[in-house]
Structures are given as structure tokens and as C-alpha cells.
Design a protein that fits this description.
five-stranded mixed β-sheet
Length: about 350
């Protein structure tokens, strides 16, 4: 069950005033951000404070954002619930839910006036810090609730599914006036009435219903994690024919002792040019791509309890168990034995290779 929303304390103008257009990076007054004095950290500070995501985690999230399965789920989720849904990378220094067509009008107005509301960025920081292993719902200074659901590949955190910008309890005039009083002294709004209308038209979702909505996202996050590598090595509908041919060649011969020159020769290209076009299309090196294809084949073999892990590794082209274990952990975020144990305990079956979802 979803834990009660944690509230970000309301702004107290006497102790937590908002600096006027202070740059979080330079302290100058030319950056379009609000900033809490001593509270809002710069993107550089974030990257050094948090553990950096794995180098391919950002690539994986970018691929997932473009897949048909995510876009279909996003459209269905937003149509049924009326709430926004985005998939974010770890450490993304952007306002929550930026780019969603279902962005709350009140939040949209705040963002348009200030590029990035410092309070929203603080909330984003807290969501990322607290939602590393399970879903987390936080309440912002304006009383709106946002939720983040971690997407984890094994033990590796790669991103978040986020939704929210709703009230769980009816808003009050007192809360609105306190919030406006805190910001009016630092920025003048000529359309305060419009802002107030948007605030009180924000959707109110009963807590129990909202808990079920977050649960749906948790299930989807688990499914995305399960098929993430399959999606990453899946073919794109708009890729060069040579890359499509290379994918087919790799899929047919990955269990053999394969080298870059073999694939380049199969598509009638020089090794140098093939590397360039393959990396630009798949965002993966040939070596990384081949390793992921082999790991996906191992996963399929481990669906049956009768296949030994070592047997599956050698059958898919790995030359040593130490190499296999290292690459499996890098790709899947966990050891082969942990993967098998988790899979047979409660995970849904993997998709058939014939049903790999194409990127759009």
C-alpha cells in the first residue's frame, strides 16, 4: 500500500525567502530560476552528490521512451486516469512531468513564468532521493501530490515513472493565500485571478483511488524492467537497411565466435564505416550489442529449470564463465542465479523474440 504523502513544508517568507532569479550555478541574477537560499543545488552539485547512473542507463531510458509499448501505455494511462505520465532518467534536472500533454494547468503556468519553479525542483530532488527502491508520493508546498515509481533492472536503478500534480484533499483559500504571499513579494503576476482559477480547478483524487493508480505504475515499471534489454536490441522501423541486415546476421550467428569484421563483411561495408553507422543507429557499440543479444538468449534458456547456467552461457557464445557473469550483471543488474530465482518466484514470462517491440 502506498505510504501517506510526505509534505514539503510551506514556504515561510521570514525564513525561506525566494531569491529573485538567482542562478543555481553562478549565483548571478540572470538565470530564469527561483532558488531557495541555501536549498536549491546546481546540476553540477547533484551529479557529484548522487551516484551517477550507469553509462548505458540513460541510453536505455531514451529507448524505452520511444518504444511502442511505452507510448501505448502512456496514452492509455493518461486517457483513463486523466493524469500525466512520464518516464524520466535518473538525475534529470528538469521540472517534474515536463513535456506531458496532461500537465496540470496551475503547474504549467508556474513553469511558464519561471522556467523552473525552485520548489518543484526541490520536490524532484526529494522524489529521486526517496524513491530508489519503492514508489514514493510527496506533497509540494502548494499542496499538490506527485509520485515516482522506480524502474530497476535487477539491482540497478535506471529511471522513474512519474505522475501526479493532484490534490488528495480539497484545497483551501488559506493555503492558496499563504502560497501567493510567499511568492508575490519576489515576482508580480498580472493574472493572479487566472492562477487562482487553475489552482482550484486542479483535480482531487481520493487517496484509495490514487494508491491504485500508483500500483498500476508499479506493475508497469516491473514489466518495463523485465523486457528492457529486449527493447534495447529490438529493430527500429526507420533504421538503415544495412543495420537491419546486421541485426539479422547477429541474431543468426551470435552463438558462434563472432567478430566485427564478420558482420561488416556480411553487410558489404568496411569495419570502420559499419561501426559508425551501427553506433549512430542503435546507440550501442557492436560489442555491447552482441553481449546484450547473448544475454537475452541466456534469459530465454533460463526460463526452463533444466538448463544449467554454465550450459546456457557457453551455448550462447560466451567463452568463459567469468566473462559471462560480469557481462550478465552489467546488463541485467543482478547475477544469473539471482535472475533465475526471481524469475521463477514471481516475474511474468519474457516476451518471445518474435514479439520484440519495435522502436518508432
Amino acid at each position: 500500500m502506498m505510504a501517506p504523502a510526505t509534505t514539503v513544508p510551506p514556504i515561510d517568507p521570514s525564513t525561506e525567502t525566494l531569491d529573485k532569479r538567482v542562478s543555481p550555478a553562478t549565483g548571478s541574477a540572470d538565470h530564469p530560476l527561483w532558488a531557495y537560499r541555501g536549498e536549491l543545488k546546481s546540476p553540477t552539485h547533484y551529479s557529484s552528490e548522487r551516484a551517477k547512473p550507469a553509462s548505458d542507463a540513460g541510453v536505455l531510458v531514451s529507448h524505452l521512451q520511444r518504444t511502442e509499448i511505452f507510448r501505448d501505455y502512456q496514452q492509455a494511462f493518461e486517457s483513463i486516469t486523466g493524469l500525466p505520465l512520464v518516464l524520466r532518467k535518473v538525475g534529470s534536472f528538469q521540472p517534474p512531468l515536463l513535456g506531458s500533454k496532461r500537465l496540470n494547468p496551475f503547474c504549467a503556468q508556474m513553469t511558464l513564468r519561471n522556467k523552473s519553479c525552485a520548489a518543484c525542483l526541490l520536490l524532484q530532488q526529494r522524489v529521486e532521493d526517496e524513491a530508489t527502491h519503492e514508489s514514493k508520493t510527496l506533497e509540494c508546498f502548494a499542496g499538490l501530490n506527485e509520485s515516482a515509481v522506480p524502474v530497476r533492472v535487477g539491482t540497478k536503478l535506471v529511471g522513474y515513472l512519474q505522475t501526479g500534480q493532484v490534490f488528495l484533499l480539497p484545497p483551501t483559500k488559506k493555503r492558496f493565500k499563504e502560497m501567493m504571499h510567499a511568492i508575490e513579494g519576489h515576482r508580480s503576476y498580472s493574472e493572479m485571478d487566472e492562477l487562482e482559477v487553475a489552482y482550484f480547478q486542479t483535480r482531487i483524487v481520493p487517496r484509495k483511488q490514487y494508491e491504485l493508480i500508483v500500483r498500476l505504475l508499479t506493475i508497469f515499471a516491473e514489466h518495463l524492467a523485465t523486457i528492457s534489454n529486449q527493447l534495447l536490441v529490438g529493430a527500429s522501423s526507420a533504421e538503415p537497411p544495412a543495420v537491419t541486415k546486421a541485426r539479422a546476421f547477429i541474431a543468426e550467428h551470435f552463438s558462434e565466435d563472432m567478430h566485427l569484421r564478420d558482420v561488416a563483411r556480411a553487410v558489404n561495408m568496411s569495419a570502420f564505416y559499419f561501426c559508425k553507422i551501427f553506433k549512430n543507429t542503435t546507440h550501442l557499440t557492436f560489442t555491447n550489442y552482441l553481449a546484450r543479444v547473448r544475454i537475452e538468449a541466456v534469459k530465454q534458456k533460463l526460463l526452463t529449470t533444466h538448463t544449467r547456467i554454465a550450459e546456457a552461457a557457453f551455448a550462447t557464445g560466451f567463452q568463459s564463465l567469468s566473462q559471462f557473469n560480469r557481462i550478465f550483471r552489467q546488463v541485467a543488474g543482478e547475477s544469473p542465479s539471482d535472475f533465475r530465482g526471481r524469475l521463477h518466484r514471481h516475474s511474468p514470462p519474457l516476451l518471445s523474440p518474435k514479439r520484440v517491440v519495435k522502436l518508432t
